[in-house]
Amino acid sequence: MSTNIPIQVRGSLQSQGFPAPLLAWIQSALPNRNPLPPLPALIATVKTRLLAADLTTPAIFEQPAPSFPPNLHNPEVKETKLARDVMVQVLDIENISRSKWEQVEDLEAIARGEQTRGREIIRLNENADDDDDDGNERATPAATGRPSANANAAASSKNATHRLLLQDCRGQTLHGLELKRVERVGVGTLSIGEKILLKKGAAVARGVVLLEPATCVVLGGKVEAWHRAWVEGRLERLKEAAGSAGAGAGAEARG
Q1: For a disulfide at 19, which of 23, 65, 126, 141, Cβ 3.0-4.6 Å?
Q2: The pTM is what?
Q3: Tell me: the pLDDT tens digits for 147-171?
Q4: Are 102 and 149 in contact (CB under 8 A)?
Q5: How many Å apart are CA 4 and CA 19, to the nearest integer?
Q6: Strands 208-211 and 173-178
Q7: Rg (CA), the chain
Q8: Closest alpha carbon to 42 in 4, 6, 3
């Protein structure tokens, strides 16, 4: 393998905002083929593997990799800005525009095999014998007297506000909050482990990075094991949080 190939791949990744990967890691991520595919295909392969990796793995990046400065976590700092681009990975995402119980209802409806269409709940028939002539599964509508939780979620998705838990290459975490709607940020569209580039100049207020399209670029990717565990545990986490919030509100009312 030409020693120039890992250098060229790294240069391309850096031009796209990625921290500089170690040449040894790039070489290990390249396909073991002779002859090698063209350079654009090699760059795409390494990029895909990088987006699927845990950024905190010590063997990936040249050190020191761009990371959050230590003072960003101080809630007493009214506002500061990132002095350079920082690549992060998503550890958690929450739609704070909707109550926990609404989100619980959504997930339970999905678990029952229900979808929504307008003011109807569509129950998907799991019987394979009920396919239509085109091979598509038939759905039986059950009309309700009000829009379902899923329909409300779809209608309000453009106006949703999300809070993310972000982690940099050093393992430091920081919450991110949408200041302006960022396309592709959303529960069900953003994966756990997905990579985001926080661009130089992004504002950090009271220990929270403010997300907006000009300074927040979703790069893609997913850490499969993290995402699967997050999805499987989300319903129980929401129920627990909703129950705690309800208990706290009840105690405050009695007080």
Answers
A1: 65
A2: 0.75
A3: 444 444 444 467 789 999 999 999 9
A4: yes
A5: 19
A6: parallel
A7: 22
A8: 6
Angstrom distances, CA of residue 16 to CA of 88, 89, 96: 14, 16, 31
- Enter the tokens of residue 228: 């699967």
What span, in angstroms and rounded, lies between the C-alpha atoms of 43 and 215?
A: 24
Given a cut of 80, whether residue 90 has pLDDT beyond it is yes
Structural contact between residues 175 and 209, judged by C-beta atoms closer than 8 angstroms: yes
My answer on whether omega of the bond before 64 falls inside 30° of 0, hence cis, is: yes
Which secondary-structure segment (H or E) carries 22? none
Q: DSSP label at 192?
A: T
Long-range contacts of 19-26 (CB under 8 A, 24+ apart): 19/61, 19/62, 19/65, 19/66, 19/87, 19/169, 20/61, 20/62, 20/65, 21/46, 21/50, 21/60, 21/61, 21/62, 22/59, 22/60, 22/61, 22/62, 24/59, 25/59, 25/60, 25/61
Give the separation between CA 17 and CA 88, rounded to whole angstroms.
11
Taking a C-beta distance cutoff of 8 angstroms, is the pair 8, 39 a contact? yes
The neighbouring-strand residues paired with 115 are 122
The string of pLDDT tens digits covering residues 98-107 is: 877 777 777 7
Instruction: Tell me the two tokens of residue 140.
Output: 């039986």
Contact 66, 85 (CB under 8 A): yes
d(CA 95, CA 153): 10
Residue 164's φ and ψ, nearest 5 degrees, are -115, 150
Can you tell me the mean pLDDT for 106-119? 61
pLDDT in tens, 174-189: 999 999 999 899 888 8
